[in-house]
Amino acid sequence: MSEDEEVQSEPVTEGAGAGVGGRTRGSKAVIAVVIVLVILAAVAVYARGGFGGADTSQEPEGDGIVEETSGGTVIDDGAGFEVEAPEGAVKEFEITGHNFAFSDNTIRVKKGDTVKLAFRSTDGFHDWTSDAFDAKTERVNTGDSSIVIFTADTVGEFPFYCSVGSHRSLGMEGMLIVEE
Predict the structure, then answer these.
(1) DSSP collapsed to 3 states, the chain
(2) Do residues 87 and 137 both lie within one domain?
(3) Do 43 and 71 lie in a common domain?
(4) What residue numbers bound the domain in which 119 lies?
(5) 70-99 pLDDT, tens per residue?
(6) What is the share, in percent, of the chain residues with pLDDT greater than 90?
(7) Does residue 107 sit in the same domain as residue 175?
(8) Residue ranges in the chain modelled with pLDDT below 70
């Protein structure tokens, strides 16, 4: 038997499961894992406000100057300040968020009260949002906090929730009750 015949008589493989173009099942699995990791990284960046979205980080300016949003909501980014409101009209609340609930599901205030809500995440990436009063804390990671201040100027029952992903549908919501 000639040397050429010996080479042709052996099967041509590049390892177990060789596929088209010489790719093995192992290399296809590696490619699949890389694709999944890229997708997960993209989701994480998007959840933190990346991909050209609005910059949600609000650094205190100068001597702890706060930012006031167009809806009249004040976010102090942990800088700490005093609220200018009539005596007894400021209602302060400390709410924590974890996967997937708030420490208090009901907040009760009077019409005209200034609400100062200090929100802290004890587990995960969360925020506190009330659409009725255009009030929203920053989205914070575990151990971080944000404060939002707004005036409860309308009587009624208004939902509040975490606006991150599907957290609201997973039960991270509550009710803000404004009484006469």
Answers:
(1) CCHHHHHHHCCCCCCCCCCHHHCCHHHHHHHHHHHHHHHHHHHHHHHCCCCCCCCCCCCCECCCECEECCCCCEECCCCCCCCCCCCCCEEEEEEEEECCEECCCEEEEECCCEEEEEEEECCCCECCEEHHHCEECCCECCCCEEEEEEECCCCEEEEEECCCCCCCCCCCEEEEEEEC
(2) yes
(3) no
(4) 67-179
(5) 344 455 544 444 555 555 668 999 999 999
(6) 50
(7) yes
(8) 1-24, 46-89
